[in-house]
């Protein structure tokens, strides 16, 4: 079972690095200052997640301290069409792309939990899904406030 957790950590680090690279690249594909700032913040968060996961690889991981909090969802990303081209993207397109990316990450970790055998690996996967859900919610609130909020 220990090997399953190790493989999960490697895959999770890879996904965090890929997300960080996506958000860094997205910064260079738009001229919108708000989109650039948002993508930088998200890249920084993904980098911190990657570092945390690398630290977990170095020690015996037990999820004793983590308390699961309820994260609401506005379900905005479920109703939007995914943007595949960020070249010259507007703030709205950039945020939609980021929301969809986080939605896919939540779905990935949630599905993965159902096939894992190790309880430690399942707990880590649940925590990763939870972190991605926080990103998704943050983006949905930003999207709702910025594009549909009252003036």
Structure notes:
- The protein has helices at 2-27, 33-58, 91-113, 119-148.
- The chain is an all-alpha fold.
- The chain has a single domain, classed as Ferritin (Up-down Bundle).
- Helix 2 (33-58) packs parallel to helix 3 and helix 3 (91-113) packs antiparallel against helix 4 (119-148).
- The chain is globular and about 45 Å long.
- The termini are far apart.
- The mean pLDDT is 85.
Please render the helix and strand layout as text:
Elements: H1 2-27, H2 33-58, H3 91-113, H4 119-148
Helix pairs in contact: 1-2, 1-3, 1-4, 2-3, 3-4
Order of helices and strands: HHHH
Largest sheet: none
Structural class: mainly alpha
CATH C-level label = Mainly Alpha
Output mean pLDDT: 85
Total DSSP helices: 4
Q: What is the CATH homology-level superfamily? A: Ferritin, core subunit, four-helix bundle
Overall radius of gyration: 16 Å
Taken as a percent bin, the fraction of beta residues is: under 5%
Based on the coordinates given, report the CATH architecture: Up-down Bundle
* Number of beta strands: 0
Distance N terminus to C terminus?
54 Å
Question: Any idea of the CATH topology?
Answer: Ferritin
Write a short abstract of this structure.
By secondary structure, the chain is mainly α. It contains four helices and no strands. Helix 1 (2-27) packs antiparallel against helix 3 (91-113) and helix 2 (33-58) packs parallel to helix 3 (91-113).
């Amino acid at each position: 079972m220990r090997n399953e957790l190790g493989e999960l950590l490697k895959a999770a680090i890879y996904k965090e690095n890929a997300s960080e690279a996506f958000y860094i690249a997205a910064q260079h594909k738009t001229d919108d200052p708000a989109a650039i700032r948002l993508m930088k913040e998200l890249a920084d968060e993904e980098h911190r997640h990657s570092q945390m996961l690398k630290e977990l690889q170095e020690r015996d991981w037990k999820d004793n301290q983590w308390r699961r909090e309820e994260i609401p969802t506005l379900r905005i990303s479920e109703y939007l069409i995914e943007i595949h081209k960020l070249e010259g993207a507007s703030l709205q397109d950039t945020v939609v792309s980021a929301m969809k990316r986080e939605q896919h990450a939540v779905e990935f970790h949630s599905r993965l939990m159902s096939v894992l055998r190790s309880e430690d690996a399942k707990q880590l996967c649940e925590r990763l899904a939870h972190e991605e859900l926080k990103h998704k919610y943050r983006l949905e609130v930003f999207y709702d406030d910025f594009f549909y909020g009252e003036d």
